[in-house]
Amino acid sequence: MTPALFISDSAEETRAHAAHFAVGAVAGMILRLHGDLGAGKTTWMQGFVAGLKSADEVTSPTFSLLHEYRGGKLPVFHWDLYRLGPGTDWDLLDLPEHLPSKDGVTVIEWSERYPGPWPDGNCWDIQINIDANDRREIRISKP
Ligand SMILES: Nc1ncnc2c1ncn2[C@@H]1O[C@H](COP(=O)(O)OP(=O)(O)OP(=O)(O)O)[C@@H](O)[C@H]1O
Ligand SMILES: [Mg+2]
Known about the structure:
By secondary structure, the chain is of the alpha/beta class. The chain is built from two helices and seven strands. The protein is globular, with a radius of gyration of 14 Å.
């Protein structure tokens, strides 16, 4: 099992942690990634997608909001809501219909921007904090 708290010394260790978590990934899972700018959310995503045996390149969907990776065991829908403010008309986005996605995993950076509702079910919070020594504390929990 992936430990609930992991201290990562490098981007590579963060990717390895995510790849390990991906072993348990199933369709319908929702992962909410939390952490400041540059904490390592997209880096963690790179490891998660690689862990699903996809060779797709993972980059931040900051402008397009959504990137899809279909090269692995499960499709991954990677959202980045950073640019969206309180006035967002969420009905215009495809996000609600990915909560959950019936055939893939939904992963959301800056999920705090979305007011909900969040479904019950297979939802996880992944919090990444930068400590005083520039290491990353990665905490996984269920809401
Ligand atoms: N232990 C570590 N884990 C993850 N990233 C690290 C670590 N140490 C250094 N880094 C570096 O920190 C940066 C993390 O950037 P990344 O784009 O993953 O952050 P982010 O949380 O997605 O930011 P944003 O909110 O802007 O999308 C990368 O340049 C990465 O190489
Ligand atoms: Mg990012």
